[in-house]
Amino acid sequence: MAQVSGDHFSITVLAAPEVPTALVCLAGEIDLAANSALSAVADRLSAIAPTQIVVDVAEVTFACSTLPNFLARVHLNLPDRSALLVCRPTTSIQRLLDLTDAGHIATLRDDLPPSDSWAPTKGSRRLESEDVAPAVSGRIG
Description:
Oligomer: single chain
Strand order of the largest sheet: 1-2-3-4-5-6
Radius of gyration: 13 Å
Number of helices: 3
Distance between the termini: 15 Å
Low-confidence stretches: 120-141
CATH architecture: 2-Layer Sandwich
Mean pLDDT: 84
Helix content: 10-25%
CATH superfamily: STAS domain
Strand content: 25-35%
Largest sheet: 6 strands, mixed
CATH class: Alpha Beta
Shape: globular
Number of domains: 1
């Protein structure tokens, strides 16, 4: 697991080469201040090449074009037959995703898909399982 945060955002990532699903939990304001951290996450996901990337946006309070740009970058770097899922958008985030036509590059879901690789805690997007294979090492960004 790796986590990076700024003044108004946090990104938690659980991804490893031997785990087919990567989880990216975004929280707070996903704007230009988060851009370099999101670029580092996209690069790391590209290197790991999971078959499914789940982006949980339930705790995003604000997003500008930085969010759809991040999703587009992740999508472009996905291996063939990989899936990008964007889960649990709030009404305002759903509106942004609809306006930017994100449904063409990602599957939009109201829930998180089940996975043996990760399990979010109640009321939080932090990951509780520390015994899963190590994720992105060190600080992102």
